[in-house]
Design brief:
The chain is α+β, with helices and mostly antiparallel strands. It contains 3 helices and 2 strands, in the order ααββα. A two-stranded antiparallel ribbon has the order 1-2. A hairpin with a 6-residue loop joins strand 1 and strand 2. The protein starts with a helix and ends with a helix.
Length: 61
Amino acid sequence: MDMMMLGHIGEACERTEETFRAIVAEAGLEVVGVYSNAASPESVIEVMLPCSDSALEESKL
């Protein structure tokens, strides 16, 4: 994380994958995947709205 950014934002912190999963779940979303690259310290977290059983059945039609 950029140390200047960390210093300028009072509540800033580095978060673990587990912490992000908890935040996403608290927001009512589901984690689809976490994509990392060994050459970069950054990751992409793919999230989506949860599917209801009826929506899942409709998509199969």
